[in-house]
Amino acid sequence: MLTIPNLISTARLALIPLFLYVLFGKDDPALAGWVLFVIASTDWIDGYLARRLDQVSELGKLLDPLADRIAIAVAVIFGWVANVLVAWFAVLIIIREALVGVAALVVLGRGGGRIDVRRIGKLATAMVYSAVTWFYWAEGYDWAWLEGSAFAVGVAGLFLYYYVMLEYGRDLRARLAPEPENE
């Protein structure tokens, strides 16, 4: 339970209140973007170390995606509230995250195990995380050029985000399909 990867995932969760404090208490979207950058950039580290150090655990399999979902939800919802993110972009991310969250609960509730992450899903997540972070920096530093890049990467990331959600849906249906009866 007390492994390096689990400590990293826990630290990522612990940075979320700091993110909110910096965004609203300090009114500093640029610094909030840097906190989000740390949360996002350490996402791959916990999984890599878990495999590399042979410290994969059931707790880690829960903590890592939980940290991902909470971090992106907080960054998107409160970025929308703080006018860092445009509404349509935030809403599309929130809808996708909600659908994936419900599907994960269905799989868990039916004892279907977990759905394996696809590389394209990791790419989509990296693109969306990057775009959201860039929106924070663009707002805080008043960098219009970065906002344009954030839109370009964000739209492409959203496209992939929804595409991979459909792929996960196929995986889910296959996993939950009844076994054919042998006669």
Descriptive labels:
183 residues, mainly alpha, Four Helix Bundle (Hemerythrin (Met), subunit A), 81% helix, 0% strand
Structure commentary:
- With 183 residues, the chain is an all-alpha fold.
- The chain has one domain (4-175): CDP-alcohol phosphotransferase transmembrane (TM) domain (Four Helix Bundle (Hemerythrin (Met), subunit A)).
- The protein contains seven helices and no strands.
- It has helices at residues 4-25, 29-41, 43-52, 58-81, 87-109, 119-141, 144-176.
- Helix 3 (43-52) runs antiparallel to helix 4 (58-81).
- The chain is globular, with a radius of gyration of 18 Å.
In short:
The chain is mainly α and 183 residues long.
Furnish the topology, listing elements before pairings.
Layout: H1 4-25, H2 29-41, H3 43-52, H4 58-81, H5 87-109, H6 119-141, H7 144-176
Helix pairs in contact: 1-2, 1-3, 1-4, 2-6, 3-4, 4-5, 5-7, 6-7
Provide the structure class.
mainly alpha
Sheet-strand content, in percent, reads under 5%
Q: Which percent bin holds the helix content? A: over 70%
The domain count comes to 1
- What is the name of the CATH superfamily? CDP-alcohol phosphotransferase transmembrane (TM) domain
User: What is the class in the CATH system?
Assistant: Mainly Alpha
Radius of gyration computed on alpha carbons = 18 Å
The CATH topology label is: Four Helix Bundle (Hemerythrin (Met), subunit A)
Report the oligomer: single chain
The string of secondary-structure elements, in order, is HHHHHHH
CATH architecture: Up-down Bundle
Number of discrete helical segments: 7
Q: Low-confidence runs (pLDDT<50, min 5 residues)?
A: none
Largest sheet: none
> How far is it from the N-terminal to the C-terminal residue, by CA?
45 Å
Shape: globular
- Total beta strand runs: 0
Average pLDDT value?
A: 89
